[in-house]
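Example (one chain per record):
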Amino acid sequence: MIFSMPLKRAEMNEGTSLVGVRECLITPEALFGVFTHAVSAYPFEMCGVLLRKGTVMPITEYRRMDNRESGMGAMKSFSIDSLHFFRSEREWANEGLEVAGFCHSHPDARSVTSSSDIAAMVPGMQYMIVSVSAEGINEVSVWQKESADGETVRIPVKLTGGFPDYV
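Predicted structure:
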């Protein structure tokens, strides 16, 4: 994974960090958005942003981002245009949404963190990794780092609310 955006979460407002949160609460609609993106992007890595309303969990929305990698590189890594992300983040803020984390897929591989995934992690953000193959979604995991030099831990994913009609 190549993560080409300058994230400085030390500049975040009071109360916005997810440090200490030990589960990923997500609505079925947001998770469905992640899954449909992963399946449609296969065999390439997809990437996107997990959003919440203000500083309150759960994750309520998933927004796709373009993978700037191309060709064979896009099968094993992704990068997000930092200027596009910056502009999108401002739009999301105007909608009352805040970034809770990021998501990408691992085509034909397990949903575990790679060394480049860990190196790019911002403490307090949640990182969803989706294992996808030609058959569909294989597994999903969410990871978090508590501090810059801290351990990366897998946290449970919990659906909130009821199931939508399409499940």
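Caption: The domain at 21-159 is CATH 3.40.140.10 (Cytidine Deaminase; domain 2).
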